[in-house]
Structure formats: structure tokens, C-alpha cells
Amino acid sequence: MRRNQRLERHSPTGHAAYHDLLRLLLDAQVSDLRGTASQVQRGDRSYWYDSYRVGNSVRKTYIGEDSPELRDRIARHEALRAAAKARAEEQTRLVRILRAEGFQSLDAATGSLVSALAQSGVFRLGGTVIGTHAFRLYESELGLRYRFDEMAQTGDLDIASFERLSLALDDEAEPPVAEVLRAFEFDPVPTVENTPAWRWRQSRGQALVEFLTPAFAEEGPRPLAALGVTAQALRHLNFLIADPIPAAVLYRSGVLVQIPRPERFAIHKLIVAERREGRDRLKAAKDRRQAAFLIAALAEDRPHELRDAYEDALSRGAKWRDRLAASLARMPEAAQALAG
């Protein structure tokens, strides 16, 4: 399929409206500080917390990893708080514009679940939306117009997080994630090995929520302390969720989540497709379609980021290179774009 047939763009107005919405959601995350923002150094990383007193004790709520943008928002948090009402109205207006422009929004059932998980702190505490729901959000991030056959509707929600980060943050989701899921009639799916469940299935439908984490040794179940759930550890996932980016979900006045960088998502899909080829060819084919679509877009818009992600993956060992080569052997246009 030729690249110029695949790539259709949203209008510059729509793309700008999305990034305005994202900026307002990031502002809102800092505007409701209850106490004093304080910085904590852990290893080579620095994190910001909202420190406030409850009775005779001091509590700390995690805000985010240190960055110039976060420091700027913290410095302006009083002004951001004062503008809360106007900001909420503007968010609603921008969501209305984006829907009129044809940007994808979530259905009510999935949107209400994602919103509840966001309110409990799942994405603030390191949870990253991956899989098909992340792919759909690249429409807004990159200003691309998806065709119907590329929308890939699914009721499954995959959330990944680093086990070590979840432990290091010293904060917890409130209410607990398990409580949120049970409120939406999700129950843990028993495992064959009688290990802790990492999948949750909705009793009144087929919706599935899965929690995943990178495997640095053996694959298997691992605890995510901040979220209070068990996750399945998988190889190659550390590459995917390193340095995620914020994203705005179009539900009500917008929901702030985080997703992998699109260039990492595309390269990771090449690896996953090859791992799945022998046991699930339909999913492997879907992985390659998503990778090809993003590689075509990124080769035009963000060629340096795409090349850096590809070279990063190639540098991680012979098995990584073999899987990438095997996938790209089926995808000559994507291989050419990466070689270029």
C-alpha cells in the first residue's frame, strides 16, 4: 500500500485544539495542590510531591517526575487554581471541537472506566495505556485521520507500569484499583498456575483489563505496589514504556492518561508481531498493520525520533535484531523507511 494513500491529516485547527486540551489537563493536575510542593531525589531521578498535614501526620501525594514544564506549573499553581472554572469550560469547548472535527472519542462504558482509573491515580502513579487504545490516541498526538479499518475497536484495556517505579513512588491509588474495578463489575480472572490474577474480566460483558510490567529476568506475575494490583511481566516491555508521553482521552471534558512514545510503539509492534506469528497470526498481522501505519507517518513527521528508537532496539542484542529483521522482511515499505 502506497504511503500517500494511507496518510490523511486532521486540520491544523483540530490538531492545535487537541494540544490545547492536553495542556489544560496537565494544568489541572497541578492546580489542586493541598499543601506544599516538595522535591524528593531517588537515585538519579527527582520526583515532586504534594506534602500536606492530616491531623498530626504529614502525607505526600505524588505529582510527577521533575521536568521544566512541571516546575513551571508548580510555580503557577495558585493562578491555575483560580482559573479552574474557566479551564473546565474551555476543556468542554475543545472536546466539542475535536468531536466535530472527527477525532475519535471513547464509548461511555470504556470512557467512564478510564476516567475512574485516572481519578484514583493510576496514570499519575506510572500506569501507561498500551495496546490498541494507545494506538488510537496517536491519531490525536500526530494529527492523523484514521480510516474505519484502522480504528481497531476493542473493549480490552492494557495498562503497563514499571515494578520498581511503582515501589519507589511511596504513594498509592485512592480508591484502590481493585475497588474501582469491582465497582464496574470486573472480577479477577483465575490463572492456571494459581498465581495472583493480573487480568480482570467484566461479568456483564466481554471487557478485559490487563496489567503488565517489564520482565528483567523471568516472565511471570509481579506486584505493582502503587496500584495495588498484580501485573504479568513480559520481555521487551521496558523498551515500550520508557519515557511515556501524556495524552488526552476524549470523554466528557477530557481525561489525562499517558501512552508510549509513538516511535517506540511502532518498533515494539515489529518485535511483538514476530513473537506472535507462530501462535496468533491474526494479532501478528494487526501488529504489523499498526507498525506500518505509524512508521509511514513518523518517517515524514518525526524521522529522527523514529531512527533513534530503531537504533536503540537494534542495540539491545541479537534476538532483538533477528525479530526486527523477520518482521521487516514481510514489510518492505516499512523496512525502506527505517533504512532511509
What's this, in brief?
The protein has 340 residues and is of the alpha+beta class.
What does this entry look like structurally?
The protein is α+β, with helices and mostly antiparallel strands. It has two domains: 3-260, no CATH class; 261-340. The chain has 15 helices and twelve strands. The protein has helices at residues 3-6, 12-31, 68-75, 77-82, 84-100, 108-120, 131-142, 163-168, 177-183, 237-241, 262-276, 281-301, 303-314, 318-329, 332-339, and strands at 36-42, 45-54, 57-65, 128-130, 157-160, 186-188, 199-202, 208-214, 220-224, 229-234, 245-249, 255-259. The strands form three sheets. Strands 4, 5, 6, 7, 8, 9 and 10 form a seven-stranded mixed sheet that branches. Strands 1-2-3 form a three-stranded antiparallel sheet, with no helix packed on it. A two-stranded antiparallel sheet has the order 11-12. Strand 2 and strand 3 form a beta hairpin. Helix 11 (262-276) runs antiparallel to helix 12 (281-301). The chain is globular.
Topology (elements, then pairings):
Layout: H1 3-6, H2 12-31, E1 36-42, E2 45-54, E3 57-65, H3 68-75, H4 77-82, H5 84-100, H6 108-120, E4 128-130, H7 131-142, E5 157-160, H8 163-168, H9 177-183, E6 186-188, E7 199-202, E8 208-214, E9 220-224, E10 229-234, H10 237-241, E11 245-249, E12 255-259, H11 262-276, H12 281-301, H13 303-314, H14 318-329, H15 332-339
Helix pairs in contact: 2-5, 11-12, 11-13, 11-14, 12-13, 12-15
